[in-house]
Amino acid sequence: MPRHYVMCPPRHFAVDYAINPWMDPTVPVDPERAMRQWTELRDTYRRLGHQVEEVEPQPGLPDMVFAANSGTVVEGRVLGAKFATRERAAEAEHFRRWFLEHGFQDVTMPQETNEAEGDFAWTGRLLLAGTGFRTDPRAHAEAQEILGVPVISLRLVDPRYYHLDTALFVLSEADDEQPAQIAYYPDAFSPGSQRVLRRLFPDAVLADAADAECFGLNAVSDGRHVILPVEATALAEKVAARGYEPVFVDISELRKAGGGPKCCTMEIRK
């Protein structure tokens, strides 16, 4: 099925501060290369038949390119974001306005800190919800109340994988005929959360450390194609063995800020 994505061009992309272990302001950043990589990601979605809408980037918000962190949309209901860091706090209001300007009527801004699809992954029946570094665990109950879907809490324990979407992605959503299928990196999660994932998804694709380190789990799947970083070769082989088609993109410049394909991509589910 065609997907509907929201993205934000990295027109003001920079690494001027460090709010995650991947960011180093002393390492040079090439904004033009970041824009080329982002454009290729956007165009890849369109070549695959998906709709992409764009939010206007704002000066002084270099991480606004990571649109996934600014909203969670399930069945047309929108739960906005409340960022954990002051550097990104202003992004939430720009995305709230975008939703309202584009006809979304059920838009709720959270009371608790949540970084949207950075820590929320919809499986078709359950919302997997990460915590440990950014999203407050109280936001999980808030998401359940606002979105009206069951929420499963998962604790992240490795600061390199500070968002759920750096350690797990949904390969295919559940439907009437089959359960959801996911891929994840076990060592990013607490022992208890690993047990929960094994119980819920016994047939999951398990990534190794090398694929996690190149942001291979920060992938986007439309149920057939899996868009992932060019370096994630072992993970690509594993998803191909399950019948999916890997599609490689270069996100090396964007990764300097701790982002990859999924970070750049918010999905609209109506």
Automatic annotation (TrEMBL):
Domain of life of the organism encoding this protein: Bacteria
Organism whose genome encodes this protein: Saccharomonospora viridis (strain ATCC 15386 / DSM 43017 / JCM 3036 / CCUG 5913 / NBRC 12207 / NCIMB 9602 / P101)
Active site: 163, 263
InterPro entries: DDAH-like
GO BP field: arginine metabolic process; citrulline metabolic process; positive regulation of nitric oxide biosynthetic process
SUPFAM superfamilies: Pentein
Family, per entry: Belongs to the DDAH family.
Protein known as: N-dimethylarginine dimethylaminohydrolase
Protein keywords: Hydrolase
